Amino acid sequence: MAETSNDPGTGVESAETEPRATGYSWYVLGVLVVVYILNFIDRQIVSILAVDIKADLGLTDADMGFLGGAAFAVFYALFGIPLGRLADNWNRVKLLSIGLALWSTMTALSGFARNQVTLTFARMGVGVGEATASPTAYSLISDYFPKRQKATALAIYSSGLYLGGGVSLFIGASIVEAWNRTWPNGGPMGLVGWHGAFLAVGIPGLLVALWVATLREPARGAMDGVASHSSPHPFREFFRDLSTIVPPFTLFGAAQRGTTALAVNIGFAAAIAAFAWWMIRLTGNFPQWSAVGLGYYAVFSWASTLRARDPATFRLIWGTPAFICTTLGYGLVSLAAYALAFWSPPYAELVLKLPKQELAFILGANGALAGFVGVILGGRIADVLRARNPAGRILTIIFGVVAPIIPIWIGYTTESSFIFYAMNFLAGMFGAAALGAAAATTQDLVLPRMRGTATAAFFLGTTLVGLSFGPYMVGQISDLAGTMVDGKPVGDLRTGILSLIGVAPIALALLIYAYRTVPQAEATIAERAANAAA
Q1: 505, 493, 414, 503: which is closest to 466 by C-alpha?
Q2: Any bridge partners for residue 490, and if so which?
């Protein structure tokens, strides 16, 4: 039998020399799962509240898609960039506890929103706080678990996504019903049921933040046998990175790199502004396309700065087609997943006429179980495939693209509630199988010191592609395909949701390319990083 190498540049380690996860490693993972559950309760509770918020504030489906997507996603993605770098350079446990306290506070403040503008700002704040979660958690997990268990550990952590999303439906529906039954004409300060739901899920996070602060910070790179040193001035680096994504400071940063860099930055900003203006004229949705335009311009500015300041990290992330195609391919999987997670409760309530309490309980349990089973099995299968083939994990992501198509079509064309629930379960389980594989693949394509930044870049795909466009796309198509009833526009959610099937061919093409290029990219990590830094 051929020997296996423990050279960190090859991505393959010897089973005899590789460190092992301890009992404390699993305890830390358990705490991180609790944090991620809270993360998605606070993020997804808008879904079950959508019908009430829409009626109370007089919003359209596209407006609700914006609140459930880009209002949160753009700021989550953008602040994930400097916060991901801060996770690489500062105490990750402290950063996570501060972030949890912030997003919990902003969720509670959502309970005082009186219009779309105030609710939008509160959701932006939730996005900033939650941007600390996955960069710190992914980095901690990578230092508590060896590479052979990484996809499994990340899959277990990711199960919090589905557990939190499912629980949020049941909690939200229960609180709305209890609140409105107790105060049918509005409670204290005129707050109604959906206000109370935000308050109830936001406040407990402050207590969990204190629990997180008790965790131990592990040594960086210990599981890889590669010493990884943090910056001696982490906050100087953080504020410098922050200045690269906040206009107009982005122009000053570009000017410091020269006249050509400034011209390119201005040119890209003009192109993005023109595209956003055109889309605003086409759709009439100013908040969505302003936020998306800001997001993509800021990411371009950050990537340009990263290329100048840290060419090795830029080379292994933005300069690696395998990384980009894996991220974008999974981003389109997440587009469908986020859209279904957000719109399935309103669809069941408005189209199938199912009671809110019933659909919240069944869809919540469905989503939690389907996601948990899918992400755990997907992670384990991805690790097995990875042991046989360096690109084996990509096959699991491809499965997550193709397998949900038939359940989505059947589930959202039937009039049977039983078939709807069953197909929703299968679509959620199949799509969830891809997450651990995608996350582990991107982590394996960079050096240990770059993992926080790589996580931020990976989540750009799941947020600026998936979350920013998934809920909004369904809402916008629903509005366009809708009709007028009693002088009021009524959306066509069925058409909006079925349009998600159209993204599958694009995702499949990206992932096939990733499958062909991942082995070579992983085998040359150290060499390409050294060449870029030279």
Answers
A1: 503
A2: 483
- Between CA 384 and CA 381 the distance in angstroms is 5
pLDDT of 433-448, one tens digit each? 998 899 889 988 999 8
Vertex 32: Cα angle to 460 and 122 (nearest 5): 55
pTM of the predicted structure, to 2 decimals: 0.81
147-180, pLDDT tens digit by residue? 777 778 888 888 887 788 878 888 999 999 899 8
For residue 483, report the phi and psi dihedrals to the nearest 5 degrees.
-130, 175
Closest CA to 132 of 189, 185, 93: 93
> What type of residue sits at position 362?
I
Q: Which residues of 499-511 are buried (b: 16+ CB within 10 A; e: fewer)?
A: bbeebbeebbebb
- Counted residue by residue, the chain has a size of 534
The total of other beta-carbon atoms located within 10 Å of residue 516's CB is: 14
For residue 489, give the 3-state DSSP assignment: strand
Q: What is the pLDDT of residue 6?
A: 42
Q: CA 446, CA 317: separation in Å to the nearest integer?
A: 7
Name the DSSP letter for residue 231.
P
